[in-house]
Each structure stands twice: as C-alpha cells, then as structure tokens.
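Hi support team,

I've been running sequence recovery on a batch of backbones for a student project. Most finish fine, but this one hangs at about 90% for roughly twenty minutes before it completes. I'm not sure whether the input is malformed or the queue is just slow. I've pasted the structure tokens below so you can try to reproduce it. Let me know if you need the job ID as well.

Thanks,
M.K.
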C-alpha cells in the first residue's frame, strides 16, 4: 500500500501548491513511484505540477449516465467505470495524475465520491506514494472521500478565518472517526512568527509548523508556471524537505 499524504484547508491557503511541492520532492529525490489524486472539483493540481489531465471521474460518470449503452454487455456499470478511470490516468515520467472533477448530473456527485474512494484503494496499491489534494473546505471530509492516510496535513494561512477553518477540520476528523496516523497543521504564507489562536492550541495536532511566505513560489504562480520550473531558492521547498526528513519519509 502506498504511503499516503492527504491535504485539506480552506481555499487560498496554498494547499494545492504544497501538494505540488510534496510531489516535486518525492520525485526529485527518487523516493518511489507517485500517484497524484486531484480530489478538488476545481482540478488544478495538474497545472501546478505540469501535467495535462486527460479527463476526470466526473466526466466519465456523466458520459455513462447520459449514455448507458456505453457499458459493454456482460460487464457491470461499476466495472466499466473502473476500467475507464484506469484509462483516465494521466501519466508523466515521474507522476501519474487522477482528477476527480465534478459531475454535472443531479445526485451523482456522491456516487462519484464513493467510486473514487473504492477505486483509489485498488489503484493506490500500484504506487509507493500517493498525494491527495482534497477539496477546499470541509465537504470532502463529511462525504468521507478521504477516510485514511499516513499523513493528514491541514493547511491554513495566518488569518483568523483560515485558523478557525483549520480548527473545525481537526474537530471533524475526530467526529467522523477517520484513520489518520499523524495529523499536522501547517500555517502557510507567514511573513512573521505566527501567534496561534487558543482554539488551535487546544486541538490535537501531532505537530504545528509555521511555513514562511515564499517569494519564489509566489512569482511563479503570477507567471502561471508549474512548480516544477522553480529555479530560485525556495523557503517552501526547503521547509517541506525538512518536514519529510524529520518524519522519516525517505527512500528505503
């Protein structure tokens, strides 16, 4: 089973960028084969890591819902969807990408989440690492898209709104009894030392980290370039590498 890192947090905290940095480090250090799961319906993880997504789970489910005749005789709909999703993997030299997307048909989004969860459990076994970029906010948790992971990283920015959202996500993990081996809080984009709210201090995080604002990553984002093209010194990459090393994520 792949070593799984799942990320969550409100929009604008740099969650997807951090997921891309994790993927960059894992591949550049040759730690092992890597699957990127873009479980955010906005689906921009591929852009940040420089991979063009072929299609998404949502598009596949929509097309089959609108045309049931696509399912071959003698094959169940779920089997056919699983086959189509396997074909939908966007492959690169170092990373394979699977995008969730959002189905447009009424009532099929929950079905898509259930399928994604079940199919991931099969596909993920083929990789050494898996990084899951979840939907901004907390909806993916309540739908149980991500039920277990080795590392669950809650990403916040230094704002009170971001920190309150992070605290609520941590509460939801306990309420829904998810199986995360370690739970971290990363306060991202900090330009100075952050004073944590009493609300956050009371939560059960295995570690709370303060990641500095990264000018190099910010400029790359403004230029619309993937994180793989970064050439300057990067606080975010440096701190993420240190985080992985400190917690034993390395090649065997």
């Amino acid at each position: 089973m792949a070593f799984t890192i799942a990320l969550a947090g409100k929009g604008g905290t740099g969650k997807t960028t951090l997921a891309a940095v994790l993927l960059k480090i894992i591949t550049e250090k040759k730690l092992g084969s890597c699957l990127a799961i873009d479980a955010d319906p906005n689906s921009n993880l591929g852009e940040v890591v420089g991979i063009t997504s072929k299609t998404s789970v949502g598009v596949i489910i929509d097309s089959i819902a609108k045309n049931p005749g696509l399912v071959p005789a003698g094959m169940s709909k779920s089997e056919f969807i699983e086959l189509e999703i396997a074909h939908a993997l966007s492959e690169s030299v170092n990373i394979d990408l699977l995008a969730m997307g959002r189905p447009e048909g009424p009532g099929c989004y929950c079905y898509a989440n259930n399928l994604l969860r079940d199919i991931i459990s099969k596909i993920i076994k083929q990789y050494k690492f898996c990084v899951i970029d979840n939907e901004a906010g907390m909806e993916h948790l309540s739908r149980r898209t991500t039920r277990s992971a080795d590392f669950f990283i809650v990403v916040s920015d230094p704002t009170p709104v971001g920190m309150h959202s992070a605290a609520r996500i941590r509460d939801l993990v306990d309420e829904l009894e998810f199986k995360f081996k370690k739970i971290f809080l990363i306060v991202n984009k900090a330009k100075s030392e952050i004073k944590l709210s009493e609300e956050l201090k009371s939560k059960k995080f295995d570690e709370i980290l303060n990641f500095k604002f990264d000018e190099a990553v910010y400029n790359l984002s403004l230029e619309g370039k993937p994180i793989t093209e970064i050439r300057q010194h990067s606080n975010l990459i440096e701190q993420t590498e240190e985080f992985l090393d400190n917690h034993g994520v390395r090649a065997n």
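--
Follow-up from support: It reproduced on our side and the slowdown came from queue contention, not your input. The CA atoms of residues 38 and 44 lie 8 Å apart. No action needed from you.
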